[in-house]
From TrEMBL, chains A, B:
<feature type="coiled-coil region">
    <location>
        <begin position="14"/>
        <end position="41"/>
    </location>
</feature>
<keyword id="KW-0479">Metal-binding</keyword>
<dbReference type="Pfam" id="PF00348">
    <property type="entry name" value="polyprenyl_synt"/>
</dbReference>
<keyword id="KW-0460">Magnesium</keyword>
<protein>
    <submittedName>
        <fullName>Geranylgeranyl pyrophosphate synthase</fullName>
    </submittedName>
</protein>
<keyword id="KW-0175">Coiled coil</keyword>
<dbReference type="InterPro" id="IPR033749">
    <property type="entry name" value="Polyprenyl_synt_CS"/>
</dbReference>
<dbReference type="InterPro" id="IPR008949">
    <property type="entry name" value="Isoprenoid_synthase_dom_sf"/>
</dbReference>
<dbReference type="GO" id="GO:0004659">
    <property type="term" value="F:prenyltransferase activity"/>
</dbReference>
<dbReference type="GO" id="GO:0008299">
    <property type="term" value="P:isoprenoid biosynthetic process"/>
</dbReference>
<comment type="similarity">
    <text>Belongs to the FPP/GGPP synthase family.</text>
</comment>
<dbReference type="InterPro" id="IPR000092">
    <property type="entry name" value="Polyprenyl_synt"/>
</dbReference>
<dbReference type="GO" id="GO:0046872">
    <property type="term" value="F:metal ion binding"/>
</dbReference>
<keyword id="KW-0808">Transferase</keyword>
Amino acid sequence: MKIHPLWEDYPSLKTELERTLDLMETSINLANKEVENAILEMIHSGGKLLRPAYLFLFSQFGKKKDTQKTIALAASIETLHTATLIHDDIVDEAATRRSLQTIQHKFGKDVAVYAGDYLFIVCFKLLAHHVSSLKSIQLNANSMEKILDGELGQMDDRYDYNISVESYIKNISGKTAELFSLSCFLGAFENNAAADLSSQAKDIGLNIGIAFQILDDILDYSQNETTIGKPVLKDVRQGIYSLPLICAMTSHRQELMPYLDKKIKMSDEDTQKIYDIVKQADGITKARILAEEYTQKALEQLSKLPETKENTRETLIKLTTQLLNRQA
Amino acid sequence: MKIHPLWEDYPSLKTELERTLDLMETSINLANKEVENAILEMIHSGGKLLRPAYLFLFSQFGKKKDTQKTIALAASIETLHTATLIHDDIVDEAATRRSLQTIQHKFGKDVAVYAGDYLFIVCFKLLAHHVSSLKSIQLNANSMEKILDGELGQMDDRYDYNISVESYIKNISGKTAELFSLSCFLGAFENNAAADLSSQAKDIGLNIGIAFQILDDILDYSQNETTIGKPVLKDVRQGIYSLPLICAMTSHRQELMPYLDKKIKMSDEDTQKIYDIVKQADGITKARILAEEYTQKALEQLSKLPETKENTRETLIKLTTQLLNRQA
């Protein structure tokens, strides 16, 4: 069992995350052992488990803690996240993820479709068997709906040169931030935290999630430069225009337009050009400023949280600062 | 709103099925209106709505009926079925279904992946908001797990010349019969039918579902002959060996083997040859005998059901006889 090295600094979280992986593992049972093993391998490939981690941290604000239920909720959310990753890999035709062959690459898209579907079901099953109220099943279902609405919203905005920063934020709020928000909220709510704390947790999770996704989109530009030597710009190739490009469009629209025609398959030279223009137009810098705004908002909200015996507030600030300043 | 003409003979069922479609429609809300419309179009394209129909019929054995809940359960099950159809169309690269363009063909597999995922969530949402107990959410989750296990089991058995009749029945029990079984069971159970009646309903649904899928697999062979003039054999082309072929293998293994090599893409001549051999080996006739066994078992079980004021038993026998003797 491999846990991401990030958690070495957080020993009690590390234990809870390991128990989460254990529960996920025992919940996955397929007659098709090859596919079962591929799913288990993916689960143990060292993903960051950020959503479960935030869920555990916010559970510490609870007045009546239920560790077993909290682990089940964490497992359910990470299982949902894994399902969407498997399906994302079909859409992206990705060959590898976390240095492993993707399920779609190893077994074909047919198996990947059903393997992702199966994990959606495992997510339901974990909720259905470990949660004590229909209310929390409803909250989960509503959040999941927002996540898919965000994914499909992003699909709708592909190849749209005129996508606004607002539409971009709306899409990433759904496809990424909603699950962070749900994790923070459920951690607090399901452990009987005060109502206003659960509501704060939801807001904080949303801001963390938005900053996290903007940073991810920045890394799609900046990281390639340093680590691969040339820009990959996976999103742009699929017509998904993320924040650095959207920011660059305001001043360098004329220069960018010729490369953004959906009828033409993008060459490596095209993406190099796009990258150069985005950089020249300070698109990455401007995106960083917006990420920083959401980060600061989250940190400010975190600093107002009450004391706990586990010193949760400081742990949350440390983790969030670390996460939203990462370089890879 | 188009309801399959089959239901003209069953006016009260027709009304309930229309209400089911209404609820499905109001439960589907996406920012991406193009995809929303494609999903709604698919829902209103005249599918048979068999699973909801059986659910309504078995609800009539309930001692304390809850029509609103029953409609929600029916909508949830048909939504799940629609989700799997959208994903099946990705796997099959199907261009049309029920004379409409498939979502994968119209919008690409990316949209189809997320559209199917979205419907899984809607199914879950319907259950979460309309069902009164965690118990029935658990039953649904467990059944859904069997369905996906069946789909993945079938994937695992692709291109396996040695697949047994037992493995075939196991796979179709999961991928098809389980949802019939769940529908019959939930109809009874969720309306407070006697425990032994709910348990019978489950068995009956399983037998109907198995017979239904065998008949579908027979029609993949026999129907093509009469309606298209040449065999399409969609399943065989994908390495899925269904009952007519499995039955033919016992006597005509040598003749069939050369055409079943997965490394070779099957030509129309190959499928014509396979079809000829399967027919010559009485594969279709033998498959019909097994379908008939499951049909008879179901009809016998149905005939033992108690009287209801709606004359449910006779309706169930009429519908099941009609369904399992269909020619298309």
